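Shift notes (night). Ran Carbon-nitrogen family hydrolase while the centrifuge was going.
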Amino acid sequence: MRASLIQIAVNEDESVDSRRQRVAALVREQAGADLVVLPELWTTGAFAFEEFGREAEPLQGPTYETMAKAASDAGVWLHAGSIPERAVSGSGSAAQDGTLYNTSLLFSPSGEPAAAYRKIHRFGFDKGEAVLMGAGQELVTVRLPETTLGVATCYDLRFPELFRSLVDAGAETLVIPAGWPERRRAHWTLLAQARAVENQAFVLACGTAGTHAGVPQAGHSIVVDPWGEVLAEAGPGEEVLTVDFDPAKVAATREQFPVLKDRVLGLQPPRHQG
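Came back to this:
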C-alpha cells in the first residue's frame, strides 16, 4: 500500500481559496498512491484562532467540494485534513446552532464522502481552540480494501485511551493530521511511536510547515510501523512524504507478539487502607 502525506506550508500571504486550489493540485499529483493525507486546519492554520470564525464553512462547503473532486481526479482515498466547520442544518446529528468544530473530511477514490470526524480533544487549556470549538463525541474508523483506518487529530495524540478504543473498533492504521508546534516536536515523534507500539498499528502522522499566527510548526510528518520503527520522516519544510508499507504486518505483529490479548480490563479503583 502506498501513502502520501502532504506536509503543507501555511503562508499567511496566501488566500484560503488559493491554498485550496494549490493543495488540490498537489493531491492530483499523487495519482498512483492508495491513500493521501493532509494536515490539520491547513486552510487557516491551526493557531490562527481569529480566522476560525471568519473562514468556517459548512461540512459540504468549498473545501469539501474541492477535495472531493481532487480525490476523484487522482483516484485515491483522501484524508483531506481538517477544516473549521460551522454546524448548520443538515450537517450532522450533533448541535446545528452554528457551533464550530475541528472536522476532518475523508473521501473515497470516486470522490464520495467516506467519513467526517469532529476532533474530540481540543487544545488550548481554556483558550484558543478549547473555547472556540465544540468537542466531537464519536470515534471514526474507515474500511479501505487493504486496511481499516482509525482517525484522530493532533492533540488527540496525547490520549492513549482514544487509540485503544479505535483498535477495539478494528483500526489497523492510525491516521493523525496535525498542526503541531516546533517547540514540542520531540513529543510529536515520541508519541507517534508510542501509539504505534502500544497498539501494534501503523501510524501515519501528517503535520504542517510554516508559521501559524506567529507559531512555528514542527513539520516532520512521520510514518511508523507496528514495532515502532520509523519508515519515513519529513523535514521541517513543505514536502510530500511517500512511503510503501504492508498492512498485513499488523496482523502478523499481533500474532507474533500478542500483547493486546493480555490486557486486563474493568479493574476496580484502589481502596484506601490504614
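The chain has a mean pLDDT of 95. The longest strand covers residues 77-86.
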